[in-house]
Each structure stands twice: as C-alpha cells, then as structure tokens.
Amino acid sequence: MLSNLFSLLLFCLCLSVYGNNKHDGSIKHDDPMLNTETPNYKEYCVIGAGPGGLQIAYFLENAGRDYRVFEKGYKAGTFYLKYPIHRKLISINKRNTDRSNKEFNFRHDWNSLVSHDESLQMTKYSNDFFPPADVLVQYLNDYATKLNLKVQYNSTMHDILKRKDGLFQMWDQHNNAYTCKYMIVATGIAKPNIPAIPGSELLVGYEDLSIDLPKFRNQSILIVGRGNAGHETAQHIY
Prior knowledge:
FAD/NAD(P)-binding domain, 2 domains, FAD/NAD(P)-binding domain-containing protein, 23% helix, single chain, FAD/NAD-bd_sf, six-stranded mixed beta sheet, alpha/beta, oxidoreductase
C-alpha cells in the first residue's frame, strides 16, 4: 500500500520546471562548484513543507534517499497560519466510524498523513469534526520533527532551471545555488484566481477579506465562486 502511495505521489508532484534565468550568463553547466559531490547537491529536492511536501519526504526518508525539503516559512505548514481565513478546516476529523479496521478508519480520516507512527493522526489532536487550522499546523510540525524529516526552513527558492547536463538548479534568497536530479514541487496554489469579468477590480479577494462580522451587517453580499472558500465565507456571514 505504501509503495503504491509513493508512486502516486511522485506521479502527482514531480514537475519539470524550465524557463529563463537571470543566472544563465554567469553559471557554466560544467562548473565543478556545482557537481554532485558538493554539499548543495541532493538527488531529490522538494519545494514546500506543507502536507504534500512532508508526505513525499516521509517516503523518501524511509526509502533511504538523498533529499532535502526547502520551505520558505519558519516552520512547516505556514500556509495554514493564514488559511482558511475563518480558522476552521473543512476536511472532516472522523474519530468514530463504528469499525475496528484501522485501514478503513484511516480512509475516513481526511487530515492525517501516512506514517508508521499511530500517534501522528489528527484524530488524536482534536475532538472537533472540523478542527481549527492551528491544530493542523501543530500536527504538521510534529510530523516533521518526530519522523526526522530533512527540512530546511527560511529558504525561498527561485529561478529554477534545467541544466544541459540534465540536473535541476535553483537559488535561495541568499543566492546560494542548489542542484538536484529530481525536482518535486509541492507548493500548492500560490496566487489568487481572479475571475475575468467586468468589474473584477472592485472585488475583495478571499485573501484580503475581513472576518469582522459587523462590517457585513445590513449589507447585500455577493459571493463570486462556489468552491470551498465561497462556502466557508457564506457560512461565516450567515
């Protein structure tokens, strides 16, 4: 089961990233400083220490692979320090299924990541059917720490390119160069989805929306979009 999940995650998360790079003129592809024997080379580079990045890191760790996770935040799951903005997850924390089968119960747990440590399950972190987002942040950091995952925090990676020798190369905010054979991007959706409709410049995006309910009192409210963010916002205002 774990090997199948590992293959599925690799299929879903592995991306080949190409593009122009401001360093192209100064870096030679055969530069010995960037060969596979330097400390800045890893066979696998994972960008993002959210649920996806940590899950793939778990499988890489247990397979004994040479990898490093690069996270721009100061800890894992920093996306969830802001989102969802109303601070309640919409992924269910189903603690009781009326079954004793562990695999069946785990399939109904929408928040936990796969691991061999049964203490690392969201059902042991919260009794709420829709847990607070801050609980998920704590869970993700415990997951990274207890499983000894190799995460490098405060590392904002940019200018990813594929070199002529087939390796990927990128730089952090301090202009440190890193190379890897496989690049796994697990950053999620980084930019708002702005609808291409007349007047869209007048809309307030979910990322800037106030959660102060008195501001909505005696107002006519139009919510554009009926995805998770739209339903979450409607529930809060309701």
